[in-house]
Amino acid sequence: MDLNNTTLTDKLLQNINREIEDIINHSDENTSWDDKYAELMIEHLTEAAEIDDGEICEHKRREIKINGYSYGADIDSIDLFSVFCSRKCPSVSISKKQIQIELNKALNFLNKCLDDGYFNLIPEVSPALDLALLLHERRKKLKEVRIFLFTDCRCKPVSFSDIEKGHLKISFHVWDIQRFVQIISSGSKRETIEIDFKKDFKTTIPCLEIADSNTDYKTILAVFPGTVLADLYKKYNARLLERNVRAFLQARGKVNKGIRVTLNTEPEMFLAYNNGITGTAESIVLEDSEDGGKRITYLKDFQIVNGGQTTASLYHTRKNDKADLSSAFIQAKLCIINDQIRLDKVVPLVSRYSNSQNKVNEADFYSNDPFHVELEELSRTIWAPAPSGSNQLTHWFYERSRGQYNDEKSKLTLAQRRTFNRENPTRKRFVKTDLAKFENTWLQIPWIVSLGAQKNFRDFTARLSERKGFKANKEYFQKLAAKAILFRETEKIVSSQKYGGYRAQIVTYSLAWLSFYSYQRIDLGKIWKNQTLSEDLSEAIRKISITVHAHITDPPGGRNITEWCKKKECWEGLKELDIPIKLSDISSDQIASKGYRASVPERGIDGPDENDEKLITEVMKTPFEKWFEIARWAKETDNLQAWQRSISFSIGKLLARGKKPSRKQALQGKRIVDEAKKLGFPV
Hints:
Layout (H helix, E strand, L loop, with lengths): L2 H23 L7 H15 L7 E7 L2 E8 L5 E8 L11 H20 L12 H10 L6 E8 L11 E3 L2 E8 L1 H8 L9 E3 H5 L3 E6 L7 E8 H11 L9 H7 L4 H9 L4 H4 L3 E5 L1 E6 L5 E7 L2 E4 L1 H14 L7 E8 L3 H15 L15 H12 L15 E3 L4 H7 L3 H10 L5 E3 H11 L3 H4 L3 H14 L7 H24 L5 H15 L6 H7 L4 H18 L8 H4 L3 H8 L34 H11 L3 H14 L4 H15 L6 H16 L5
Parallel strand pairs: 3-4, 4-6, 10-14, 15-16
Antiparallel strand pairs: 1-2, 2-3, 5-6, 7-12, 8-9, 8-12, 9-14, 10-13, 11-12
Helix pairs in contact: 1-2, 1-5, 3-4, 7-11, 9-11, 16-18, 16-19, 16-20, 19-20, 19-21, 19-22, 20-22, 25-28, 26-27, 27-28
């Protein structure tokens, strides 16, 4: 065994154990070690595109155990997760026999749900009931179930035969601690894809090498058989798709009707009709062919950066329509860049410039977004106020990259570590997916938050992208931390109510309703200053949670509760209910009006940043009378668009009342003034 690899494994395992222990010690939720281990592994594997997010739902009986599950939009395939933790460090070995026992427990759960009414034996408050019902309802339509074992032990390479159960294929996948290390410790958060075409597909790929000594990369033009690309997608799924645009491709990767028709009716014309794919790789092996050309025998770190829909459509059309792909071929442009640093920099740009058929938004390139870098810097420099009776200042530690918190601690001496823990307590650590939960809950979209951590983060990233360069500042960070306090204190309140399940959904729906009911005027500045919630606000949240719990656990038609919470209709229904609190109950927790000016709601990333405030100030320098004159002049002369005249009049009314225009109004107002000047109007 590689000593260096063992040392790295045990170091990461120590960090994982410490993180889980800290979470459990500072959580009021009745949760198990296995559940928290499953949560961490689901997060890592989702980032690596091995799975499609997941739900935690621990359920144990004799010879039966399940810890979580995941499924895609079609629900014709489901992943089941089981956990076995020794909680020992250094890591210990697990035998193949023990692995088989653990996998069989999950298999028994599956068989029970498919074959009989096992859901009748699961308590109604258990999230595992949703999974049992889902498996039973979809038993005739399910095509594939993958059973995963997550373990903190080490194991030798093992394999288990697939099981065919009628139309259903059941496969088994073991993720031991060493395999996790490969993705957790990797900067790319994924296992490198290596393809030996001779060994894996009994073929090689014809190609043309474009040689240019003036570049530090190599370009290859190739033609892939459709069967090979479909098989690659079947084996690697979204891992085959470049990580920075994976969210885009997964979200929009449904089978294209045009592609599907061609593959079913004229597969031999696919090469002529389709634009092909663009890929990157770290290295390539070529061999001479008998006809004097070149053929690809091997690719390392192969990634498809444009053509994800084409690749996925090949697989799904063959799978769903039984299409014959033997005569379908796809052209490919491959960029071979053997410098890892250069590869990480160039690949996102290749993705950005290649994706033209299906536009890739800036949101799909979030990994290096300056917003997260700025937020990280703010979190290290802004001190949170000391609680009453203490003089200890602390940080809200934003973990831009998973593991930063424990990595920083590991470099310190014992004395320095004690200081670090005091200044950066675990309860004040938050990650990117937490950030997205806090913000999207405040933005009143709890059904998006309920989709899962990664899907919710993708949505937040898209909204952030629409802001086109939103800059986080001190005020934004403090209000974000206040939302974190709101969220985490609400988790404690909900746990104390002992609802039995669905805490995550109750929390996001309760706070979204509070944001809605208060018109986003909860005084986040007060929460930041006190670093806690007032008794009145805590009591209001408790009352809200009672109605929320009753609402989400009584879905129409008795449908799946977890799925009901993912629907906008669930939120719209909640807004129509009477909840027994009044704004006067939390009057001291709302932003106070200043004189004749109404209080300004907190809109998170939808609100103005520093640049927007400068623009608003500039627009306000034009007197309100002048805005009315612009609107009147534009109407009389038929200049500007009707909506521009309307905005000009609206800005005038706001300024006349002593109010500020919104950032969007200010942006349009600046353009209106500039256009009016060009047309000769004296501004």
